[in-house]
Amino acid sequence: MKFNNYYFLALIVILTTTKPTHAQDLIEAKLLRTYVPLQLILQFGLPATNSIELYKVLYTTPNAIGVKDTASGLLVVPLLNEALPIVAYHHGTTSPRENVASREQFHIAELYLGGNGFITTSADFLGMGDAKGFHTYLHAATQASASIDLLRAARTFCKNKGIQQSEHLFVTGYSQGGHAAMATFKTLETSFAVEFPVTAAAPLSGPYNLTGSFRADITANREYLFPAYFAYLVKGYQVVYGNIYTELTDIFRPQYAALIAKFDNQPDYPLDALNEDLLKALREESEVATPRFLFQNNIITAFTANDRSNPLINALNENNVFDWIPNAPMRMYYCEADEQVPFQNATFTDSLMNARGAKDVQAISVGENLNHGACSVPAFLSAETFFRTFLETTSTKTPWAARDIDIIIYPNPTSDVLNIQIDNSSEEITLTLFDELGRIVQMTKNETSIHIAHMKNGYYLLKIQTKEQVIVKRVIKQAEQ
Predict the structure, then answer these.
(1) How far apart are CA 464 and CA 472, in angstroms?
(2) Which tens digits make up the pLDDT trace of 187-220?
(3) Which of 91, 356, 364, 403 registers the highest number of CB atoms within 10 A of its CB?
(4) Can you list the positions of beta strands (E) in 222-346?
(5) CA distances (Å), 434 to each of 419, 429, 475, in order?
(6) Are 155 and 134 found together in one domain?
């Protein structure tokens, strides 16, 4: 058959202008394993109300230069015969590249959400898992596109499998995942509001004001124990923008650039090894690990003057995620003693958004004295509690409290016995006590006290569940006076 020129031209136009359907975004969904509630409780110390299936999902998403590539992520499906809410979860900083949820690494939050009735997606992000290249660390656009395209792939998978999805879509993530969650939330509301209307979002302890945080850390004469984050970000932005540096010594002083050059996010030299080496080198030079000594003087000068002609400053400005107005309700949970991500990222973003007319945005502290690691559990549980308030109270599942029920916990702090008094409650009650890592340390039914004299001193979270409501409270175990 012969093609005339007109037909050939028309065919090219059709092929190059027709967009692929969303079904093409899903390449493969491979069942990894199934967990029943008892396994989640015994193996991971996680409370669970239902069984779950874990799937490694391969799907297409744009790479750092906008070309479609294959990425991976985790999909957790609760085994429940009802329409289920969806959570787009975003992981925190992790290294090496295989330490991601699709490899069943660092996936406790996803297991918890799935085991309590949420379909959960967790993108590995570019440069992690199956995606090629170096990780585009803290790059808002690719974090968002990887997460949204995984949502599309999950929707296709659920439709093909007859898994019911409710209209509720939630967005959350911690640390780097807090930044990614905010980027995803913003992109969904500004570009995909019809396709993916967000019910509520809860970014957790994220660096929403990247420029401000970066500038404050590298221009101040104070110790910062995580200098490898700067290297991770700079190398990731070079992948995206291509103009951050010609040589690493354009940004970093030679003795530090030599260490950073070795970092490729592989198992033989992961981020924590780089961080240890940078700390050692900084302390050998100045006794205190002050980040400003990592950088060339002209970089410090540019950040001190906020020189917009500097490509690194421009890249950071492009990846700030605080300067917009959400429509859906949002809570930013944080802790004041966070030594990695300054809590002012949340309070500043709250103030700016509300000043510009945001409908329902709040920054909420969940721990005055908790550092970045310890903050993750109360922040995450607060986010889940917040999400539960949007689920219909007619559901067969327990509605969670948006505010405190009538409850008194005493004494708190305590060295021995923790007493719980709930007014007007003759119903069944379950008390679950978690440590700072989110592990169950005690669980009782139909009791109004917990003996904790044998436990280590520190902060714990007490989940109080009745037939009608659930509330989470922080309690303190202290030494006997």
Answers:
(1) 6
(2) 999 999 999 999 999 999 999 999 999 999 999 8
(3) 91
(4) 330-334
(5) 16, 16, 10
(6) yes
Helix (H, G, I), strand (E, B) or coil at 278: helix
Residue 356 maps to which CATH number? 3.40.50.1820
The residue ranges of DSSP E strands in 137-223, in sequence order, are 165-174, 200-204
In a domain, 12, yes or no: no
Residue the block writes with tokens 């992000």: 125
Please say if the pLDDT value at position 1 is more than 90: no
Task: In whole angstroms, give the CA distance from residue 148 to residue 154.
Answer: 10
Distance of CA 33 to the CA centre of its chain: 23
89/188 same-domain check: yes
Whether 189 and 337 map to the same domain: the answer is yes
- Check if the beta carbon of residue 199 is closer than 8 Å to that of residue 360: no
Of 25, 111, 105, nearest to 62 by C-alpha is 25
| pTM summary value | 0.81
Q: Based on the fold, state whether residues 294 and 244 are members of the same structural domain.
A: yes
Is the pLDDT reported for residue 415 higher than 80?
yes
Per the CB < 8 A criterion, the answer to whether 289 and 222 are in contact is no
Same domain as 415, residue 373:
no
Residue 332 corresponds to which tokens in the numbers above? Answer: 């930013």
253 with 274, same domain: the answer is yes
Calpha distance 387→303 (Å, rounded): 39
Which of 403, 402, 406, 380 is closest to 389 using CA atoms? Answer: 402
pLDDT, tens digit, for every residue of 166-187?
A: 999 999 999 999 999 999 999 9
pLDDT (0 to 100) of residue 194: 96
